Amino acid sequence: MRPLLLTLLLVTLPALAAQPDADGFTSLFNGNDLTGWVPVNVATGTDHDTFTVHDNEIVCTGVPTGVLRSEKMYENFVVELEWRHLRPGGNSGFFVWSDALTARGVPFTRAVENQILDGPGGDGYTTQGDVFAIHGATLTPGHPGKWKGRSYPTESRTRPSPQWNHYRIECVNGNIALAVNGKVVTTATNVSQRKGYLCLESEGGLIHFRNIRIKELPPTQGLDPKFIAKKDEGYKSLDTGVDLSGWEFSRPASKLDWHPRNWTLRFERDPLLAQAGNVTDPTLHTSAEYETFSMIIDFKSDHPIDLRLPSFDRITLPEPAPVPNPDHKAGTKSLETLPRPKGIWRRAQITLAPDKLMITGDDFHPVTLPRKSATAAPRKAPIGLSPTGPTDFANLYLKKLE
């Protein structure tokens, strides 16, 4: 009877853990592992994972800069958590109503951040519970200050490192109220997103989280889709931010040209090898092979970037489309254009279907190419990045297509 009883207990415990407590809250952290949380663009499966669990606490190393998000989207709710910085001056945050993936050219999502910062503050921000919209989100501050789109706390209530602090964040119908250690000090209204994910932020500080729980409130009837954050579509990061796990070099010497730099991946020819004339194929390619997939790439470069794809030897990412000159005089035969500014982040989405390749982006015209031997079975091969000059990559995501 004992084995049967033990089996019944093991089957029943997860169900009991998901039940609301007497206050109507459900735990978002089981104290044992990161079940219910998704690493968006932080290290996972390495010897130096960004988020781990120790002694019933979520431990964040702060490296690389990025986010861990909830599996589930939430609309109206009250969320509570405790946090403490282990080093003075640490930086972190708790995001609400977040997109599933990071915004172009940055390590963070479009969301509203409840700041978790230790220290004296600075020019235009505090360390006492600022609430602000980031990377395309908007809000109306309840207590505005120097920086537009940022709501400032009405009083100082956070405790310095390494003491614990408590946040209670109420998010209802586009309104936010943040209570720091038992008292509401920061509010915001008219948030542009009103349903989305929750995120724990990694931003250089060694920080611990515990007792994360949520109470869901009745949803808004007929919520306009424009208020819903971008949903999870199955993309997974190809970059750990701490090493080149999952990647291989076309030539051994190429490893001197590629450098993980926090949330970016930098390609630049090693000057000593270049001076010696030892210039080899720079391609960095995935260890895994793929047939059909959709891939997102952010990149910043003033040089062409080639991709090595299954069924395609070499594809060059499109150059930006011309920018119309606002001072162009009407009636002239040709439309004058302005050169694109250099050194800016761009985003491309590459979709390789069984019969065609599609490349889309927000600053160039879509490209569609027939897949070679489309009548035959798609060829399986690695995906390669082959820049022709100094380039920064970021937000490398991929999902397999059925």
Model description:
Strands 1, 3, 4, 6, 10, 12, 13, 14 and 16 form a nine-stranded antiparallel sheet that branches. The protein has two helices and 31 strands. It has two domains: 22-231, Jelly Rolls (Sandwich); 247-321 and 343-400, Exo-inulinase, domain 1 (Jelly Rolls), CATH 2.60.120. Helix content is 5%, strand content 39%. It is mostly beta strands and 402 residues long. Residues 1-17 have low confidence and may be disordered. Strand 27 and strand 28 form a beta hairpin.
Question: What is the helix fraction of residues, given as a range?
Answer: under 10%
Structural class: mainly beta
How far apart are the termini?
Answer: 45 Å
β-strand amount: 35-45%
CATH superfamily of the largest domain: Exo-inulinase, domain 1
**What does the overall shape look like?**
globular
CATH fold node name of the largest domain: Jelly Rolls
Largest sheet: 9 strands, antiparallel
* Structure annotation, total helices: 2
Total individual domains: 2
How many beta-strand runs?
31
Please, what is the average pLDDT?
90
Main CATH class of the largest domain: Mainly Beta
Brief digest:
The protein has 402 residues and is mainly beta. It has two helices and 31 strands.
Question: Can you tag this structure with a few keywords?
Answer:
mainly beta, Jelly Rolls, 2 domains, eight-stranded antiparallel beta sheet, 2 helices, 39% strand, globular, disordered N terminus
Topology:
Elements: H1 2-17, E1 26-27, E2 37-39, E3 51-54, E4 57-60, E5 66-70, E6 77-85, E7 91-98, E8 111-117, E9 131-134, E10 140-141, E11 150-151, E12 165-172, E13 175-180, E14 183-189, E15 197-202, E16 207-216, E17 236-237, E18 247-249, E19 258-261, E20 264-267, H2 271-275, E21 284-286, E22 293-301, E23 305-309, E24 312-316, E25 323-324, E26 337-338, E27 346-352, E28 356-361, E29 367-370, E30 384-387, E31 391-400
Antiparallel strand pairs: 1-16, 2-5, 3-4, 4-16, 5-15, 6-12, 6-16, 7-8, 7-15, 8-9, 9-11, 10-14, 12-13, 13-14, 17-31, 18-21, 19-20, 20-31, 21-30, 22-27, 22-31, 23-24, 23-30, 25-26, 27-28, 28-29
